[in-house]
Amino acid sequence: MKTKQQTRSKSTAKKKSTTAKKQKRSNGTLTNQQIKDRTICNGNVVLFQRENSKRWQCRIRRNTGTWIDYSTKQTDLKKAKKVAEERYESIKYRQEHGLIDVTRRFSDVCKLARKELLAEYEDTERILAKQLVQVIDKYLIPLLGNYQCHNIKTEQLREFSKKRVELMGKVPTTSTIATHNTALNYVFRKALSLNYIQYLPRLISNDGDSTKKRRSYFDDTEMRQLINGMTAWVKTTEALHKVKGGRNGIDTLSDSSYDIRMMLRDVVLILVNTGIRVGEELINLKWNNLDIVEQDGMESIRFSLTHTKTRIQRVVIGYEPIRKNEDERYGCWMPLQRIAERFPKLGEMDWDKLFQVDEYIFRLPSSGKVVRQEALTKNFKKLLLSCKTKQKKKEGLLRDDFGNARVLYSLRHTYASRRRYEGMSFDNLSVQMGTSVKMLEEHYSHFSVSDNPNLFSGHAKRQQTNKDKEIEELKKQIEELKKQNEKKTYTEQAREYAAVRES
């Protein structure tokens, strides 16, 4: 039997607990000033602290309307704000340039893939699913788990192969490697579906060779290096061309060489934004092979091409990356404008008149002759060699991770890789690139590029972004109207109450 003192003690403890909970709830309520202090970047970034943690977290709104959380690793709010703002600007920049804006550890994606495989095994009792889970647990997470998904490339996979041998104590069999590669592909495809990577990495076999031979391409980082390298390339070209009477009385850079070097930057941008073939498809283009196609108020450049071997005609829509200023035109517009401005008469024309001119696009201003593919190829090699990086000081961007030399055709493969990352189907991409005549005739003859120019130009992506912005603006307007209505109702009630009291 409980004494009165025990009962009173228990009652007092209960009251104290209740008071503490109320106080906790009260303390957890943020003032308007606190909310204001923790919201930055026009409401796109919100800072908060998790329970039992002094470190500040930040929640960032993406252009899709979704939110993503990051740890600032800071306990000071001022420092946390700075970190959060830098992270927001980085994400914003990557979104505007069509790059990956979200990254995750490989171990996190492994856990997601593992969960799916376990569910698959429970439903079907597939032995393979169980084997893949074992591979993830024993090899993938321990050896690759700490890497960010987008940082796992050839070098990391080669290191994985070496460490795997050490962990197993022997060289794995072909069958074992096949199972491991299946698990790797499963996880990488999961990462690709979540936009954590742009491309599926090329896997390494037991002898260190690529399991699948693929054409060289430029990833996002390499493309930025190439674009920066082209800017320096143009400045150097202009400087060399100004120097007259060089060694032995010969000009440092001839007019013809100058024209080719200046044109190369524009050729690179057109190839990487269209995916058209290097050679006759490019060289034989005339201004009147181009026209403007419009869909939903958005204009794109349409290239009319003729396949050099089959003579089958097709059209290609020039891609345009997302930019801050939607009034400015990039993609293929800018390089074509620069090419036209090198010819006085063409530079004065508007686009409609320019696209009626029956002259070759890639002509040298100094001679009027059409540029040769060999000259572009030779100078492209020089350009890649000039793009020095910390990792590749000797050969610049000339070779990929496997030592394969990059050529102008690598830009076509880069285009294909980027469009696939953005979600373009193989069907649509095949039509755009004209990759297989037989496949076009059998499966894709019903689809026309001109039926949906916005898809191929990148406008479709911008349309969705604009729609998301409109939806957000409408939500804000609705919330404001609600507040106004609530305020009005309260005022009316106050007046009625006052009138009653006066009466």
List the helices and strands and how they pair.
Layout: H1 4-28, H2 32-37, E1 39-40, E2 45-49, E3 56-61, E4 67-71, H3 77-96, H4 106-124, H5 127-144, H6 154-168, H7 174-193, H8 220-242, H9 255-272, H10 280-283, E5 290-295, E6 298-306, E7 313-317, H11 333-341, H12 344-347, H13 351-354, H14 373-386, H15 409-421, H16 426-433, H17 437-444, H18 453-457, H19 459-502
Antiparallel strand pairs: 1-2, 2-3, 3-4, 5-6, 6-7
Helix pairs in contact: 4-5, 4-7, 5-7, 8-9, 9-11, 16-17
Protein described:
- With 503 residues, this protein is of the alpha+beta class.
- The protein contains 19 helices and 7 strands.
- The protein has helices at 4-28, 32-37, 77-96, 106-124, 127-144, 154-168, 174-193, 220-242, 255-272, 280-283, 333-341, 344-347, 351-354, 373-386, 409-421, 426-433, 437-444, 453-457, 459-502, and strands at residues 39-40, 45-49, 56-61, 67-71, 290-295, 298-306, 313-317.
- The chain has a 4-stranded antiparallel beta sheet with strand order 1-2-3-4.
- Strand 3 and strand 4 (67-71) form a beta hairpin.
- The N and C termini lie far apart (64 Å).
